C-alpha cells in the first residue's frame, strides 16, 4: 500500500503559504495549562497579526509571552495539505503609527467583528512547516 509523502518546507514556502489562509490558531499558556484558540490573521512583513478582545490571547501579548501560531490547509479527499508553525513573541501593538497602519490591513475578526479593537503581532523568527502529498501524487 502506498503511503503519503511528507516534505519539509523552507521559510519562504512557509511564509507564502501563511499568506494564503486567513484563519489560524494561537497556542498560549494559561496558568501552565496550554490553550489553543482560533484567530483571523494576516501576514504583515515578518509578523503575523491578529485582532482580539481583552482576554486570554491579549493577556499573553501583554506579557510578551512566547506563543505558538499554526495555520494549515487540508484536502480530505486527496489526503494532502500543509501545516505551518510559528513560534515567537506576541506583543500588543500600541504605537499609534503602527496601529493606524494595521487597521488598514484586510483583517476582520469573525467572532468579535468591531469589538476586536486590539491588535497583536507575533514575530516569525522560528517558522517550520510541512506538506503532505497523497500517495498517488508522488508515484512515478
Short summary:
By secondary structure, the chain is of the alpha+beta class. Helices cover 16% and strands 48% of the residues.
What keyword list fits this structure?
8 strands, 16% helix, six-stranded antiparallel beta barrel, Pnp Oxidase, Chain A, alpha+beta, 140 residues
Task: Give an overview in words.
This protein starts with a strand and ends in a 7-residue tail after the last strand. Strand 5 and strand 6 form a beta hairpin. The protein has helices at 11-18, 56-62, 96-102; strands at 5-8, 23-30, 33-44, 47-52, 66-75, 80-92, 118-123, 126-133. It has a single domain (5-138), classed as Roll (Pnp Oxidase, Chain A). The protein has a 6-stranded antiparallel barrel. The protein is of the alpha+beta class and 140 residues long.
Q: Tell me the radius of gyration.
A: 16 Å
Order of helices and strands: EHEEEHEEHEE
CATH superfamily: Electron Transport, Fmn-binding Protein, Chain A
> What is the overall silhouette?
globular
Counted beta strands: 8
In the CATH hierarchy, the third-tier topology is known as: Pnp Oxidase, Chain A
Mean pLDDT: 87
Main β-sheet, spatial strand arrangement: 2-3-4-7-6-5
Distance between the termini: 15 Å
State the helix count.
3
Count of individual domains = 1
CATH class: Mainly Beta
Low-confidence stretches: none
Largest sheet: 6 strands, antiparallel, barrel
Amino acid at each position: 500500500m502506498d503511503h503519503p509523502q511528507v516534505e519539509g518546507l523552507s521559510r519562504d514556502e512557509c511564509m507564502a503559504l501563511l499568506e494564503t489562509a486567513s484563519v489560524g490558531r494561537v497556542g498560549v499558556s494559561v496558568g501552565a495549562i496550554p490553550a489553543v484558540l482560533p484567530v483571523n490573521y494576516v501576514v504583515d512583513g515578518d509578523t503575523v497579526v491578529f485582532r482580539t478582545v481583552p482576554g486570554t490571547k491579549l493577556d499573553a501579548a501583554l506579557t510578551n509571552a512566547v506563543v505558538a501560531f499554526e495555520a494549515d490547509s487540508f484536502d480530505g479527499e486527496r489526503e494532502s495539505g500543509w501545516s505551518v508553525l510559528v513560534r515567537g513573541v506576541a506583543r500588543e501593538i500600541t504605537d499609534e503609527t503602527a496601529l493606524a497602519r494595521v487597521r488598514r490591513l484586510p483583517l476582520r475578526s469573525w467572532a468579535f467583528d468591531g469589538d476586536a479593537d486590539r491588535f497583536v503581532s507575533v514575530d516569525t523568527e522560528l517558522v517550520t512547516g510541512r506538506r503532505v502529498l497523497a500517495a498517488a501524487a508522488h508515484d512515478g
